Amino acid sequence: GSKSLSDGMKKVPSTKRETAAGFIKQVAKEFGFNSNGFSIYQNRNKTGEIDSKTSKSLSILKIKHGDMLYLYPSGSVGVPAEVMDTAAAHSSTSLPSTSFVQEDSIDQYLAKQDGKIYRNRDAQLCRHGALGKCVHCVPLEPFDEDYLNHLDPPVKQMSFHAYIRKLTGGADKGKFAALENISCKIKSGCEGHPPWPEGICTKCQPSAITLNRQRYRHVDNIMFEHHTIADRFLDYWRKTGSQRMGYLYGRYTEHKDIPLAIRAEVAAIYEPPQNATQNSLELLEDPRAAAVEEIAAKLGLVKVGWIFTDLISEDTRIGTVRYSRNQDSYYLSAEECITSGYFQNLHSNPCRLSRDGHFGSKFVTVVATGGPDNQVHFESYQVSNQCMALVRDECLLPCRDAPELGYAKESSSEQYVPDVFFKDKDKFGNDVTFLARPLPVEYLIIDVTPPPPSPTFRRWTVTSNLFILTRCRLSPQDFHSLSTYLSQSSSTSFLNIVSDFHLLLFLVTNEVMPLRDSIGLILEAVKTSNEDLAQTWKKSEQWATIEQLCSTVGGQPPSSLDYGAVGGPSAASSSSSAMWSCLHCTFMNQPGTELCEMCSLPRG
């Protein structure tokens, strides 16, 4: 009979005498496809196609039990979207098959790239002609460790797609390559003994885990599209001294400095409702979560990570912060690693080579903390797939008195926990295996390189620190705030003014006049940077009503909201009754003050 494996894996029964045509009909029935809607090949590189019209038996086609076949939808190209696992009865044939996996667009793009590192002819070492190649100039594979180690800075982990090329290379072209997700749970369905804690056997018992430093990373680089995105996020800490957390929304692109690498480009930071103090953060239920995801999707953005601050002011006169995260303390605490693992499990990475249809995650953790120069630095990390498995199956705990240490849970009558080990050197320099009780979290962390902020991106330029919905502690977010935001904006075009994630969210979710059903045009204008579309929406009845509401609460006629004039903002924007940003340290000061509260320099 047919056996169904987890998340779409199937075994298709057949016999030696089964014809190819009959077998393909059985596969179509098993997957719910049309018989002519797909093709099956004996090799991953789309060779050895099984003809659906032939009357030859599977034994004549040399298909036997345990063989792997590959299913492609009609007209598809490149690497298979499906790996199928099937088994036959009698002298059963086993063919692997999974459900179709829709990978991210960046993964589909990189899968089609050559990826090899091409080198020029070396004038000193190469002894051949211009058209020849030798060991000194032959192209290198994208996973070449010597090449990666000689980059500036050196790359410790290869990119995930380079790792896939390494798996699928060699003589068998990756015919048997598969990425297995780790499971720390007892396999269900074992009937030879009573359930845990009364019984367990080698068939259902999860394997022990030895933690290794991961050799690849799913994201190689992260950057902000504009430096003001980060400055705006930090402004909450500057004003209150409390820590802050936000979700990073952006897109994944190719990072060309490393072969087949992925970069996360951050276009906006959304700060969910939270209780914040100088030493802690607590996330609250977010009533706007669905609207945030809807707006992001229409803008072509996805949630690429999360960011939090860990900042302690050292000298307020010169604006320095304490350098606390280093090799003598920790880079990420165990609790932060567990939180990162939780988020990465929520945002798993679709992958065609995994039987589960997903493997790892492209979700990045960014920490705003003090650097060696006592200035604010951004450090970015991911946690390993092993850490994700330990967190998912609730096997990892933080240590109360040592933030740099985690603790692998012990088995109890409610839960079986496999043994977790890690390797380290003893005082004599020998490799020794230790039980992960406790566990240095450095075994779970992967570095992601953050470059310095780049001011070249014009889209999403921040024009004001006033309008962030969840910062009610600093100022109420209502139409009065919107009126102030519009009147103080120094943008020269309407498109730049509405290219603000929090402003768009307010327009959709405010209780007075939500524009959820009529904001599609301006979202498309922002997504495509189309000023004409923005001007068309500006003339709509909805925006006219918004202007009228702003003028009512702001005490000025709509015409004075001069946010589209070449000369910049209206005269009202320079009023002493509004908050102002210091030109020297960007600190937002209260109305009526002439000296910056942060750096004590004059307003001008």
Automatic annotation (TrEMBL):
* InterPro entries per record: MPN (IPR037518), Npl4 (IPR016563), NPL4_C (IPR007717), Npl4_Ub-like_dom (IPR024682), NPL4_Zn-bd_put (IPR007716), Znf_RanBP2 (IPR001876), Znf_RanBP2_sf (IPR036443)
| Keyword flag Zinc-finger | yes
Keyword line: Metal-binding, Zinc, Zinc-finger
Domain called MPN: residue spans? 222-359
Q: Which Pfam families match?
A: NPL4, UN_NPL4, zf-NPL4
Question: Which GO annotations describe the biological process of this protein?
Answer: ubiquitin-dependent protein catabolic process
Q: Which GO terms describe its molecular function?
A: ubiquitin binding; ubiquitin protein ligase binding; zinc ion binding
What Gene Ontology terms describe where this protein resides (cellular component)?
nucleus
Q: Which residues form the signal peptide?
A: none
- Family per similarity comment: Belongs to the NPL4 family.
What name does this protein carry? NPL4 homolog, ubiquitin recognition factor
Gene that codes for this? NPLOC4
